Amino acid sequence: MPLLEVRNLTSGYKDVSVLHGISIQVERREILAVVGSNGAGKSTLLKTVSGLLHPFTGEILFDGAPIQGLEPHRIVEKGVVQVPEGRQLFSYLTVRQNLQVGSHTQEARNRRPETLDVIFQLFPVLAERGHQMAGTLSGGEQQMLATARALMARPNLLMMDEPAWGLAPLLVHRLFDTICQINQQGCTILLVEQHVHQALSIARRGYVLERGLVVMEGEGRQLLKDERLKESYLGI
To answer: I want to staple 172 with a disulfide (CB 3.0 to 4.6 A). Which of 105, 150, 164, 211 is the partner?
Structure first.
């Protein structure tokens, strides 16, 4: 049984549909990439799974149980946590305070010291910057903090929305290495990204969205060999 299953999902904003009956599955412990151009519906998908948007039609099943229509905090309690596009940190709180915000569920609060140890092993710079205001961090450090804040909730499924946004190429490479490390520790990852080559290179499987529809799907490295994808997204 997939960890996350989206069935015939139609969603959008007010009365405007952005997703048009799409279906995807995320298997346990995999990295699954959803790629596509701006406006394809990638962020809309994550916001709908997170409960920030309510679907017009369709089902969203997490661990076999429906979650569509639940409030966002209830979805987090079930283990679905999103790293939002643009990081959306609390700029005037310290690094440690931002991390504490991430561990707001009862279980996460109870295991906060243990989780912080894991976070600081994964992101040593955050331990060094613990009392620094989040808004004064570099772009790469802010992305680390946004990811770490989500991990503080101890997710079963970590959804990452354009994590490489605004980062220099070297930092993008390091970021994707870190995503692989998080996955190797047992966390399932749903990765939405415009860096198509990097995302599909680390993903076991991937979906390509265009105008709210799934137009391609398959193993990540196989998709990279597809001539249509090369021409449309890789400029080859």
So the answer is: 164
CA 99 – CA 176 distance, rounded (Å):
21
Q: In what order do the strands lie in the sheet with 31-35?
A: 80-83, 157-161, 188-193, 31-35, 205-210, 213-219
Kindly list the distances between the CA atom of residue 58 and the CA atoms of 5, 21, 22, 101, 211, in Å, as whole numbers in the listed order. Answer: 11, 7, 9, 32, 18
> What is the pTM for the complete model shown?
0.94
User: Of 98, 170, 171, whose CA–CA distance to 135 is shortest?
Assistant: 98
Decide if 183 is inside a domain.
Answer: no
Number of compact structural domains in the chain: 2
CA 198, chain centre distance (Å): 15
Domain range enclosing 121: 89-153
Q: What percent of the chain has pLDDT over 70?
A: 99
Q: What is the pLDDT of residue 234?
A: 65
For tokens 């997710």, name the residue.
155
* CA separation, residue 103 to residues 1, 190, 191 (Å): 28, 20, 22
Residue 182: inside a domain: no
Write out the H or E segment, with its range, that includes residue 5. strand 4-13
Residue-by-residue DSSP string for 195-212: -HHHHHHH-SEEEEEETT
Nearest to 45 by CA among 9, 8, 85, 3: 9
Over residues 106-153, the pLDDT tens digits come to 888 999 999 999 999 999 999 999 999 999 999 999 999 999 999 999
